[in-house]
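Subject: mismatched residue count in predicted assembly?

I count 1452 residues in my input, but I want to confirm that the predicted structure covers every chain. Input:
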Amino acid sequence: MAGNTTGNLFKVTTFGSSHGTALGAVVDGCPAGLELSSEDIQRELDRRRPGTSKITTPRGETDQIELLSGIFQDKTDGTPITGVVYNKDADSSAYEPFRNKPRPGHGDYTWTAKYGFYDYRGGGRGSGRTTIGHVIGGAVAKKLLEQLNIRVVSHVTQVGDVKAQHVAYSNIEEYAGQNMVRCADQKAAKIMEDKILDAKEKGDSVGGVVETIAFGVPAGLGEPVFDKLDADLAKALMGIGAVKGVEIGFGFQLAESTASVTNDEYYLEEKQIKTTTNTSGGIVGGISNGMPIVTRMAVKPTPSISTIQKTVDLEKMEETEIQIKGRHDPCICPRVTPVAESAVAMVLADHLLRSGFINPRHI
Amino acid sequence: MAGNTTGNLFKVTTFGSSHGTALGAVVDGCPAGLELSSEDIQRELDRRRPGTSKITTPRGETDQIELLSGIFQDKTDGTPITGVVYNKDADSSAYEPFRNKPRPGHGDYTWTAKYGFYDYRGGGRGSGRTTIGHVIGGAVAKKLLEQLNIRVVSHVTQVGDVKAQHVAYSNIEEYAGQNMVRCADQKAAKIMEDKILDAKEKGDSVGGVVETIAFGVPAGLGEPVFDKLDADLAKALMGIGAVKGVEIGFGFQLAESTASVTNDEYYLEEKQIKTTTNTSGGIVGGISNGMPIVTRMAVKPTPSISTIQKTVDLEKMEETEIQIKGRHDPCICPRVTPVAESAVAMVLADHLLRSGFINPRHI
Amino acid sequence: MAGNTTGNLFKVTTFGSSHGTALGAVVDGCPAGLELSSEDIQRELDRRRPGTSKITTPRGETDQIELLSGIFQDKTDGTPITGVVYNKDADSSAYEPFRNKPRPGHGDYTWTAKYGFYDYRGGGRGSGRTTIGHVIGGAVAKKLLEQLNIRVVSHVTQVGDVKAQHVAYSNIEEYAGQNMVRCADQKAAKIMEDKILDAKEKGDSVGGVVETIAFGVPAGLGEPVFDKLDADLAKALMGIGAVKGVEIGFGFQLAESTASVTNDEYYLEEKQIKTTTNTSGGIVGGISNGMPIVTRMAVKPTPSISTIQKTVDLEKMEETEIQIKGRHDPCICPRVTPVAESAVAMVLADHLLRSGFINPRHI
Amino acid sequence: MAGNTTGNLFKVTTFGSSHGTALGAVVDGCPAGLELSSEDIQRELDRRRPGTSKITTPRGETDQIELLSGIFQDKTDGTPITGVVYNKDADSSAYEPFRNKPRPGHGDYTWTAKYGFYDYRGGGRGSGRTTIGHVIGGAVAKKLLEQLNIRVVSHVTQVGDVKAQHVAYSNIEEYAGQNMVRCADQKAAKIMEDKILDAKEKGDSVGGVVETIAFGVPAGLGEPVFDKLDADLAKALMGIGAVKGVEIGFGFQLAESTASVTNDEYYLEEKQIKTTTNTSGGIVGGISNGMPIVTRMAVKPTPSISTIQKTVDLEKMEETEIQIKGRHDPCICPRVTPVAESAVAMVLADHLLRSGFINPRHI
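Triage response: the counts match. Full output below for your records.
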């Protein structure tokens, strides 16, 4: 129990479910004196909001943030910042058929196995809507990171078997913002879009890969041997629904290489120590080295599909079949990008405080 | 600071460095009444011990465990279990040349950036020897898991570009134990061995992949939304030195697939709910579903190689070169297998306690 | 930073300030399946609500609870329970004079020293109103304790120099409920009431002692050596605003005694092990022994008084004087009783889960 | 379970029991670069060592510290500092009679109720010897506090009904060091000594009060609303064996007073904000105000006495009697003073780090 709080000094507690009254987050540990407005959070929530393009679910939620605490005269006051988003367009009727029939790929069965029963309406707290809490926490974290000129950017690098070409770091944010797939490689983006629409038409869904890069992170973040920066990033990213794999830097490619090829050698640039390559993704020995921090996560295809699927009736304890209608995302990757940024931003904010790069009392 | 403790209810704190007086671990939270002896821990330590084959470092350490507390009449007594291993064969001389010259791929520079100076002797606490603490904690965790007939098995599935063929779960432990590479695919093991010896000869090193499977884990483990079982496993595995990627189940393969192919459908087997496939690796929605839990981690090539490498002299702040002699592992994968088992076992022990599957007071 | 979460498995995070938008709490870790309604929480909030008698502040707050999450079909669903109370009658005007002039005895100065500035309106988060969060968490904890027939009762045993006579445990709750001072000794209650009204008339305030007793707590709660049950109770009670002392059992009286007098001897009652006396207050060696758990806390006089007081103008950094008008409690003890019950109930709920007396998954 | 770690950033984990192999502590989170030697720790251990005067137990332990990790070139290196003390003079024979007969006032019964059985030898981990771990952690904390010129001093202010007169803060440490009772009031010390020897002769024991004062603590320490500085101090002090009451500042005296008398008014002294009185004990609203931090704890008489006492035979489940021989302290207060200092020092070190007054990476 009690797994809804993350972070040590920058502590975020989230709550709420897909069809409950509201969702939200309490952000504790943000220093006082940080300028913060509802708009700062709304901007990020709008990026994960559904119904914004033809490749996302049509569920019509405005996801308006309401700040309940933590702000005094437009600045954080050192006390918990609480943001709430009320559910407006929850339609539970579509879920009645699954009351006792767990949907393959969803948490319905595992949550029932744990809690004895389950909020079958839209996945309850197992729903992707719970990432509203992540984004609220991430929005505050990002504002804090801005103080140190740290920027976190996510983009889609793969959809199904379509892989994006490498794009210069400086262009990723801009280019990825120019298409609904949020892929910085415009050519690939178009192909990805077709792939997603094709899956949508078939009532199927497709997976992908989301890369998140943090620029401007100082060397010295991370607390070996257990709270290494890469370890905490891995936990934060793997904890996002539908994520089944995480890489730092070259990740699994390194398994195929030799050290003579992959060791990042050191050199000096304007008295700054840098590495000629960045196979480590900016983290060595669990501590940041000042280079860009690069993470990638594997996102599975959203399990809600309209083909008939085999499952078990938990009440009658007999095998049965279900067919999911509802409103779903044929590929969740685009909408997951702000969530990945939030997850990384929260980890960085926590470690910046733990390592003393930010005054925990006030800006 | 303070990142050397892991777990919430099964809490393991480790200490010690490569060339210090000793290394060890304090295991707090193990229920009383569990039969535990030094042998139980020594057995696991021997599996990670160096100098056991021609593909590991010749550093001659017996790694004898000494139990300082927590055992009363051959059983745990509910108080912290402390195990210590004294360093015997530390040879610091070989490291003098690197006093101010960080070795590429090692934590030398990042630790210095953080702590202001660095124990250059064998990597200090950044050394792989710190995993002695992991293995002590893991050995206690494994004994606890035995009570619930849960078994954790690691094996090497890839070395460089050599990938092992799939081996029946029931044979993995036995087969992997029959070769020094700890690969269950005997044919591949031989090729891997040659690959490692070839790298060793060249003064180079090679990476690989280690798969860890947990059998017999009950459905219901995991604490969404942040302390999901897969999230905690990802943190534990990514936190092991040299690991740069983690997968659960089909991991990155899922990114290329569609839900119609990858959704694990449910069926009944002797009144037990099972899934026809296990692409999820036994974890859905962050909670275990009763199927085998499957994880894989990407291990980078050990950075200590004998070729000349570029680095920076931190004292003179000028570029320079180094050549590493010392005693090293051309491929760390085989020795990492017990560490991976330990990391997974500790996470499972913690979650079994958190979810109430084990009486926290006494067995 | 980040000190607004308490508990390990029964985790309560509170937020909000005296004159902000709202106050509330997120309760994480409550098992699923517990019947819980807004009424269960409202009942407790009404007991701490202001304006209920002539010895409390006239601030007119209805303190209506709104549940945002965690309940499904009238039962807890294993996810975070969020309760919010909106401020309705905040009147900041009265506080303008103290914008830069810290009120003696209040946290104004210390909070400013920490956060750089301060929400001078009604004490901001330093206000007693923040205990609304404690009471929400306590209300959920009490419902959980009911499952094990554990009852927590607070009553006022001293106001100024007026001390209550001992009252049989079985009568405390009933008798204390019959007077506005919440003192079980009806005779003393009348004198206490006069003392409080006398102080009120003089624009002064008076302190007191609140005793909290937990009945039905099983033997075996507490986690030595640091998380002892009495240690956690001491932290929870000392953490309540205005509390400056905590005792367990005979407390400071024991300092004057000898062991031959104070040792609680064991005997058998219907095969149950009990102690002939209870000087230990139900906790020995940091672990409960099955006897009633008895705590007492010293409550200082509420610092808001109308006499002229010396202070310092933080802006001009010169000595000055202030006179507080506003609306205040001449003795906070009666209203603190439900807060003390909540603090104790939350600690017990957490330890019952930590010690495995409650299934953490579901009731 | 898992209650043997304290602190968030300055994290201390202790282990070991009275008659086991060894006791010790792992201190994690101490910044690198702090000069620290075995002597620094031994000095503190010697102050709590038994057998140093005729009013302490004759158990002959030298309590020699051995440092296993965390020190590099005479300075802390940012990794866990581990200190171990081996038991040398454990005599278990005296405890055989209590194998199944819990001693009144000791944790024997409660630990058995929790763990199913109990290390009856000298109280196992329930023994006062476990405070060796506290003192190791405290010794490191004190070294860290020295960097900020913070001093922590404990002295005995009461033994039985003998109360010490107030002594000027500047003289307490010196005067208390001049007598075996560690009371700064030399006259009272003599009477206390007689009282203790008188109790010893009768095979009885006597309680007392220990006051601990921290000088030089900056304003701004404490994390409301739950991790207030006074709340954490209360937990740390109440967690020490035999402590049954804790006061901050005037504590229980405040319950009898009115705010017009007890409010600490502010004034300026060399541009520093101070209070004319210090009834608050240096903590207001849970945050330090820059004045000396004053705590007092009530210590119960050590329960080991030679008179015949009633108890229950846990095996036969029948009432019986025991008589304790063994070697004991007729008054534990003097030996508890360094433990109280350690408890306070650890809390301050943790909060100095949490509030950013110390660079967590290195001195």
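The radius of gyration of chain C is 21 Å. Marking this ticket as 'not a bug'.
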